[in-house]
Amino acid sequence: MSKSTLARRRREQGLAKPVVYYPFHEAFFHTWCDDLAWLLGLIWSDGCLKGNSIEVVSKDRDLIESIVALIGQEDGLKKRKGAQAWCVRFSSRSVADWLRSLGLTEAKSFTAPFPTLPPEYEAAFVRGLVDGDGSVLLSSRRPGQQVADLRVQLVGASPFIRDGYCRWLSKYGISYSVGISHGSVWQVMISRQESLRTLYRLLYPAPGVSALARKRRPFDQWMATPRARPGRK
């Protein structure tokens, strides 16, 4: 039956508070994989936890469609009321408890931790963070510049995410700079060529990994652009 019919029948039986279900494949969260780690990165950046419900909101419809397909939620794509954005929402006590065990809390903007994950899935989690709260910018800012520069930036408010992300970058020898803007909002930027190449290989180990196409496309373009050898006059 439809949700409205269910609510009406519950009211008829004196059950005033309707129960709203968001059915999905909970088994997706039972086994670690690249897609799951990527989705966690999106939940940590663009998502929120309220009780036993999890919601992810984005202006990129294809991003929400990818999440809906991963968790198998039929008709899960919704237009966010009062905003030019899309969302997916699902509810499960077991999944919510598992996310809490990784450190996710309600009102997480300033408190979200960098979770402890199997090392082989940390890069996918970072890819989710970048797809949610990051930017991949390809630009030419110098006069006469023939090859565009690339900058990858992650922005947030939780110092724990910042510190965990920086530790992860340092583990692979990736150079970065940290800045502060708008009070407690920080930004971590990567712009050196070798560091960008290393980051690309970590974030996109295969063509078909889950990723926001809008942010992967400029990275692909930059990687495919020939550059002069170091030391050229």
Please give a structural write-up:
The protein is built from 8 helices and 8 strands. It is an alpha+beta fold. It has a single domain, classed as Endonuclease I-creI (Roll). The strands form 2 sheets. The chain has a 4-stranded antiparallel β-sheet. β3 (78-79) and β4 (86-91) form a beta hairpin. The mean pLDDT is 90.
Give the overall pLDDT as a whole number. Answer: 90
Strand content: 15-25%
What general outline do the C-alpha atoms trace?
Answer: elongated
Spatial strand sequence of the major β-sheet: 1-2-4-3
Helix content: 25-40%
How many discrete domains?
Answer: 1
Distance N to C terminus: 73 Å
CATH C-level class: Alpha Beta
The CATH H-level homologous superfamily: Homing endonucleases
Instruction: Assign the structural class, choosing from mainly alpha, mainly beta, alpha/beta, alpha+beta, or little secondary structure.
Output: alpha+beta
DSSP, total strands: 8
Major sheet summary line: 4 strands, antiparallel
CATH fold title: Endonuclease I-creI
Catalogue the unreliable spans: none
Helix and strand succession? HHEEHEEHHEEHEEHH
- Supply the CATH architecture: Roll
The Rg value, from CA coordinates, equals 20 Å
Number of H- or I-type helical stretches: 8
List strands and helices in order, with pairings:
Elements: H1 3-12, H2 34-46, E1 47-50, E2 53-58, H3 61-71, E3 78-79, E4 86-91, H4 93-101, H5 122-133, E5 134-139, E6 149-156, H6 159-171, E7 177-181, E8 185-190, H7 193-203, H8 213-224
Antiparallel strand pairs: 1-2, 2-4, 3-4, 5-6, 6-8, 7-8
Helix pairs in contact: 2-5
